[in-house]
Design goal:
With 85 residues, the chain is an all-alpha fold. The chain has one domain. The chain is 81% helix and 0% strand.
Length: 85
């Protein structure tokens, strides 16, 4: 699970960076739906980091509040799964 969350977070982080780059250049963009889907399926930490590093999607309410919520839930789930029983 840790490997999955790490991999999907790295991919999500990179996607946020690519989308920011494309936004600056006026090129075709990655859809918000795709970015949020990547966040939802485990890329919450990468999405949050991407928002902070790239300063991207920080004004959109669904990103401003949804991404930290998803990241927190994913982090708590990972901690819970790895705590000794």
């Amino acid at each position: 699970m840790i490997y999955y969350l790490t991999a999907i977070s790295i991919v999500t982080f990179v996607l946020y960076g690519i989308d920011k780059y494309k936004a600056k250049k006026g090129k075709w963009r990655i859809s918000e739906k795709s970015l949020l889907l990547m966040t939802f399926i485990g890329g919450g930490i990468g999405a949050w980091a991407g928002m902070k590093v790239w300063h991207h999607k920080t004004r959109h309410m669904k990103f401003r509040y949804g991404v930290p919520l998803m990241a927190s839930m994913q982090l708590l789930a990972a901690i819970y799964l790895y705590l000794p029983a």
